[in-house]
């Protein structure tokens, strides 16, 4: 009886030990998985969504915008602008296809400049108006550009944008302009509209707060 029972007990104990070792390994793996997931999430860079953008360029002047970045590849901005003669408003969108320190961007924006006096515009261009007209000069624009973003995936971002802008300029009561060009104060004219596509350049920086 003793000789027959001992091998049986050994054969029975081996599977039990194997099953126990497997169960212990599975429990250890189950316990470690949430911790690894938390460590991986903590190691990922946090996407900063809100910031401020400051830029300067031609022909649209200087601007400051609030920035919203709902997705890593999408940036929205809007804010006031000035061309030293009048103030305006603009809104834009940027696509950031690469999340690297140096990355390209595709940009589009639209804006409006409120009226500035015609005499101020002529003085700004270096000429002297012959009349005393206070006609308003306003313009709207839509532009597209490609850019180079340095630090696009970090808190601070410097950028350079090059592109084209479609500008629609309007002068209320264009008599003063025609009189200055023709040197004839007797000429009268209606409102003047000028449309053109011009090159544009812009440099600036962007700072994300949170």
UniProtKB/TrEMBL annotation:
User: Where does the record locate the signal sequence feature?
Assistant: 1-37
Going by the UniProt record, its keywords in alphabetical order are: Signal
Superkingdom is Bacteria
Protein name (database record): Outer membrane protein beta-barrel domain-containing protein
| The organism of origin for this protein | Pyxidicoccus parkwayensis
């Amino acid at each position: 009886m003793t000789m027959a029972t001992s091998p049986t007990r050994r054969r029975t104990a081996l599977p039990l030990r194997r099953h126990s070792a497997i169960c212990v390994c599975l429990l250890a793996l189950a316990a470690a998985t949430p911790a690894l997931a938390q460590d991986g999430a903590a190691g990922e860079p946090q996407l900063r969504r809100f910031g401020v953008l400051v830029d300067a360029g031609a022909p649209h002047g200087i601007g400051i915008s609030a920035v919203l970045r709902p997705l890593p590849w999408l940036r929205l901005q809007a804010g006031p602008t000035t061309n030293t003669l009048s103030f305006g408003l603009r809104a834009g969108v940027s696509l950031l296809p690469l999340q690297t320190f140096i990355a390209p961007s595709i940009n589009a924006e639209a804006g409006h400049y409120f009226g500035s006096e015609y005499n101020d515009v002529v003085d700004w261009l270096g000429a002297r108006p012959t009349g005393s007209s206070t006609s308003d000069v306003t313009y709207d624009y839509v532009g597209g550009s490609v850019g180079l973003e340095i630090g696009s995936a970090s808190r601070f971002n410097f950028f350079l944008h090059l592109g084209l802008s479609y500008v629609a300029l309007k002068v209320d009561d264009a008599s003063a302009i025609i009189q200055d060009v023709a040197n004839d104060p007797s000429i009268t004219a209606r409102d003047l509209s000028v449309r053109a596509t011009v090159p544009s350049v812009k440099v600036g920086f962007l700072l994300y707060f949170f």
